[in-house]
Amino acid sequence: MKFTDAELIGVPTVLVVGRRAGEGVVELKDRRTGEREELTIQAAVAAVARLVGQEG
Q: pLDDT tens digits, residue range 1-52?
């Protein structure tokens, strides 16, 4: 999914897998607050699992 698509459909949290993924680092962005956080892949998976659990 492209960033503009996420903006258009209102995805609340975006996981950005960029150049640092090879180092095991991804970025988690909260679109509501604009907060961005660099996390290890393992920490990002745990954070997304928590967020998904909160939605239901």
A: 666 766 667 778 889 999 999 999 999 999 889 999 999 999 999 999 998 8
Q: What kind of fold does domain 3-55 have according to CATH?
A: Rossmann fold (3.40.50)
Kindly report the number of other CB atoms within 10 A of residue 49's CB atom. 10
Domain chopping of the chain, boundaries: 3-55
H or E segment and range at residue 44: helix 41-55
Other CB atoms within 10 A of residue 44 CB: 20
The whole model's pTM is what?
0.74
